[in-house]
Structures are given as structure tokens and as C-alpha cells.
Automatic annotation (TrEMBL), chain B:
<dbReference type="InterPro" id="IPR000524">
    <property type="entry name" value="Tscrpt_reg_HTH_GntR"/>
</dbReference>
<keyword id="KW-0238">DNA-binding</keyword>
<keyword id="KW-0804">Transcription</keyword>
<dbReference type="Pfam" id="PF00392">
    <property type="entry name" value="GntR"/>
</dbReference>
<dbReference type="InterPro" id="IPR036390">
    <property type="entry name" value="WH_DNA-bd_sf"/>
</dbReference>
<feature type="domain" description="HTH gntR-type">
    <location>
        <begin position="9"/>
        <end position="77"/>
    </location>
</feature>
<dbReference type="InterPro" id="IPR036388">
    <property type="entry name" value="WH-like_DNA-bd_sf"/>
</dbReference>
<keyword id="KW-0805">Transcription regulation</keyword>
<protein>
    <submittedName>
        <fullName>GntR family transcriptional regulator</fullName>
    </submittedName>
</protein>
Length: 230, 124
């Protein structure tokens, strides 16, 4: 469970989150959507305890989010932080040394699934394979909360497809909750349970995607266009 | 591989329709076991909660039944399967009729059009 209660975040005079409240229940895949600069990454950072609210509370699994939450939250940032001289195998070993919940066996299974060779050097990986490796490292952990920041940006449709299949195959839906910030909504709408929409740091709402299709007869993309216009 | 869906309709309904088609065509025979929720989610590239919903609706329609600890099975009740078949036929006829009505065709013209079409189609 993740709870935001009247959260404000200011960087100097820049008011990036304004009075945001929402609740995310476990076992779901939630899309966090909004135009660039609307505060999506800040929300993810608050959940992972990398930054603190200026006011209000961020509760994660029943406690206030802080740096110790890192053992329970997997945070896949938009940028990757790989050492170019490492091999894929080195990277796996490094993660195992850093995270108690890292499962080597699952990681190797994931490498096979993503068709990655563990002897390859990071610097020789294509952009798509770096994206795949990031997801391998994230999904090999057992932590209950998985945060993904623009996991598909700049990747071609083939890679996106394999990432979506990877998510569906390896997430433990009984125990894990996924929150992904994205503006490529078309790629992910079939896998989402809910959407949380924000704009300019303000909360617009939380919606069940099947209900939108059912009640409005619109695709999520069409519906979002209307929402953001109004 | 992920399947394509109409993005403006609920996915659980679209999958329900596909499963019903398979049942009516007997690709899923009476008493056959449906794939697990996870398998279906992967086949269609959708959220497992969506498949859960599909299975719940099919169960509510009594087209499938859930056996605890064993999985979900197509009903063996022939009357229910006949009902399903008739419902699906009705839906298609309904949309045929609606479309032609919009174009101003009378009932008589519709019947004639259909039997004419079937005759020609048969001759091929």
C-alpha cells in the first residue's frame, strides 16, 4: 500500500507537487501519467525515499518513506547507471551484493527470457538491450513495490513488447505492486489496472482503465486527450 | 505475442467474446479446461486481473465453472451451450438488422436480401 496525504513538494520557488493525495492498493499495475514536467518522477522519488515532501505524508507499506525503504522498493530510473567495463554477469553479481532480496536464479531465467548473454560487456549492449537489462535487474528482486520511470522511452516496438511480456511473466501479482510513470500510454494500456493522472504538479484523478473503456467507449489515449484539454 | 484489441472497448469483454467463439466452434470442447489466468494473460499480453474478470463473467453466465484447486472448465451442460450459441447468433442478427434499418431497408427487403445472398453464396 502506498499513500500520499496532502503532499507538497517545493524546490526553491518551484512548486512541483501541489497538495497531492491518493492511495494505491497492492497487487496492481498502475500507470502514472502526465505531460513532461508534471511531477511524475518526483512522485517516484518520494515513494523511494530519495527525497522528502515539503509538507504532507508519504506512507509506504505502513511507514513514512525514507532511505531505509530501499529494501522494499525497486526503483528503475529513466537513466541507467551501469559501469561500461562490467559484463552482464558482473552487473548481476553487483546487484546481488547490494540487495538482499536479489534472486540470482530468477535473474538468469530473466536473461534467457530477454535473450541476453551474460558474458557481454555493458558498453557493447544496444540501447534496447540496456533497457532489457535494466528490467532484468529490477524484476530479479523480490521487493513488494516496483517503480518504473519511463521504462519504454526511446525503445523500439519489439523491445517494448519483450519488456511488457517480461513484466507479465515475472511480476508476482500476489505480492508486488507496480507503479510506472509513462507518457507512452498506448504501449501499456492493456496491462494497466488503474491510471493516476497529474498535470502541472496537481492531481487530476485516479481511474480504473476498464471502466473508462466501458463507460466512455473511448480508448485511454483518446480519453486522456479530452481530459488534458479540459 | 500480444494480441490486438479495440482500444475503446473493455478488454475483458473482448477476451470473453473470443473465448465464447472458441466454445461455440468447439475449439474448447464441453468439459475442456481453460488455460490458467497467468497463461491467458501472457497469450493476450494483458493484466491478469483483466483475465480474472473475464473468467468471473463467464462463470456468472454459467458458460464455465470453477473447480476449486483444479481450474476453470467449459460447462458440459448442453442447454447452456445452446443458449450461448443462440445469444451470439442473436447479437449478430441484431447488428445486421440495425445496420440495414439505418439505411432504410424494410423487414421484407432484409429477408429477401439475406436469402438472395445465401443462395448466391451457396452457388459459389
Amino acid at each position: 500500500m502506498i499513500e500520499f496525504h496532502k503532499v507538497n513538494k517545493k524546490y526553491g520557488f518551484n512548486h512541483v507537487l501541489k497538495d497531492i493525495s491518493f492511495t494505491i492498493h497492492p497487487g496492481k499495475i498502475i500507470g502514472l501519467v502526465g505531460p513532461n514536467g508534471s511531477g511524475k518522477s518526483t512522485i517516484l522519488k518520494l515513494i523511494s525515499g530519495l527525497t522528502y515532501p515539503s509538507s504532507g505524508d508519504v506512507n509506504v507499506l505502513g511507514e513514512l518513506a525514507n532511505r531505509r525503504i530501499a529494501s522494499k522498493v525497486i526503483y528503475l530510473t529513466e537513466a541507467d547507471s551501469f559501469y561500461p567495463s562490467f559484463t552482464v554477469k558482473d552487473m548481476l553479481n553487483f546487484y546481488e551484493s547490494q540487495f538482499a532480496d536479489f534472486d540470482q536464479e530468477k535473474a538468469i531465467e530473466l536473461l534467457h527470457f530477454m535473450k541476453l548473454n551474460d558474458s557481454m560487456k555493458i558498453r557493447s549492449l544496444s540501447k534496447g538491450n540496456r533497457g532489457r537489462l535494466k528490467l532484468v535487474l529490477a524484476l530479479a528482486r523480490k521487493a513488494p513495490i516496483l517503480l518504473l520511470d519511463e521504462p519504454f522511452s526511446g525503445l523500439d516496438p519489439m523491445v517494448r513488447d519483450s519488456l511488457v511480456q517480461g513484466l507479465l511473466s515475472f511480476i508476482d501479482f500476489e505480492k508486488q505492486t507496480v507503479l510506472m510513470a509513462t507518457h507512452e500510454i498506448e504501449e501499456v494500456e492493456p496491462v494497466l489496472d488503474e491510471l493516476i493522472m497529474i498535470e502541472n504538479g496537481s492531481y487530476l484523478g485516479q481511474y480504473h482503465v476498464e471502466t473508462i473503456r466501458e463507460e466512455k467507449g473511448l480508448s485511454i489515449k483518446e480519453w486522456m486527450k479530452e481530459k488534458y484539454k479540459g | 505475442m500480444a494480441e490486438e484489441f479495440h482500444s475503446s472497448q473493455p478488454i475483458y469483454l473482448q477476451i470473453m467474446e473470443r473465448v465464447c467463439q472458441q466454445i461455440v466452434r468447439k475449439e474448447l470442447a464441453p468439459g475442456a479446461k481453460l488455460p490458467s489466468v497467468r497463461e491467458m494473460a501472457l497469450t493476450f499480453g494483458v493484466n491478469p486481473n483483466t483475465i480474472q474478470r473475464t473468467y468471473q463473467e463467464l462463470e456468472r453466465m454459467e458458460v464455465v465453472l470453477v473447480k476449486r484447486g483444479q481450474g476453470t472448465f467449459v460447462t458440459e451442460d448442453t442447454a447452456k451451450l445452446m443458449n450461448l450459441k443462440r445469444d451470439m447468433q442473436r447479437q449478430i442478427i441484431q447488428s445486421y438488422v440495425n445496420h440495414l434499418r439505418e439505411l432504410g431497408f424494410s423487414n421484407e427487403e432484409m429477408k429477401q436480401g439475406l436469402s438472395q445472398f445465401l443462395k448466391e453464396d451457396h452457388d459459389d
